[in-house]
Amino acid sequence: MIAFSGSWFRRRGALKKAVAEAHGRLVREALMPVHYETRGVPDTFEGRAQMVTVMTALACARFAEVGGPLAAELTERLNARVLDGFDAAFREKGVGDHSIARKVRTLAEAHSGLGRALVEALKADDSREALAEVLQRNGVTRADTAGALATAMRAYQALFAGQNDTEILSGGFACGGSAPAV
Question: What is the structure's pLDDT at 5?
């Protein structure tokens, strides 16, 4: 008979709770009207999915700053949770079961590509040019508003950087429903 350690179950539960907390905070922030009204993100299903990717990329970049196996696992689980959310959103929209897999795969590929590009741009030293270029090139926002969204991303990045690692690893991203003023 195999005995399971109680700490394994507690750790698994803590990871699940941290990912749920981070996901909830990041999605609420991604769906704030300011992104669609003043920062040029299209208020469409795809536009909202892209904003979720933007916020997830910010979280993953912060996890990477923390480093270590726990941060890597949180990154993986957060991305899986986001993709599950995309699947659920398609089902909620009434997309048929036959086409859901294809649509989610397409959205997952876009999420992965955009996410990687944003994380790389977040590492760049320039304050917003690299981000604005990635946002515009990937159709997240219009050319005339890419700078505003890039500035907001840098503000989120600074906000998350100001939080301690323990808070970040517990999913406590400082997303209180009010986007950083830019």
Answer: 43
- For the chain, the farthest-separated pair of C-alpha atoms sits apart, in whole angstroms, at 64
Record the pTM: 0.86
Say if residues 54 and 30 touch (Cβ distance below 8 Å). yes
3-state secondary structure of 31: coil
Can you tell me which residue has the tokens 């941290």? 18
pLDDT in tens, 55-104: 999 999 999 999 999 999 999 999 999 998 888 887 787 766 677 778 88
User: Are the C-beta atoms of residues 99 and 122 closer than 8 Å to each other?
Assistant: no
Quote the CA–CA distance of 129 and 75 in Å, as a whole number: 25
Concatenated DSSP letters for 149-177?
HHHHHHHHHHHHHTS-HHHHHTT-----S
Q: Is residue 117 within 8 Å of residue 138, measured between CB atoms? A: yes
Angle 108-114-117 from CA coordinates, rounded to 5°: 140
Helix, strand, or coil here: 67? coil
Contacts of 56 by beta carbon, 8 Å cutoff, 6+ apart: 26, 78, 79, 82, 111, 115
Q: How far is CA 24 from the centre of its chain?
A: 10
Q: What is the distance between the alpha carbons of residues 50 and 173, in angstroms, rounded to a whole number? A: 19
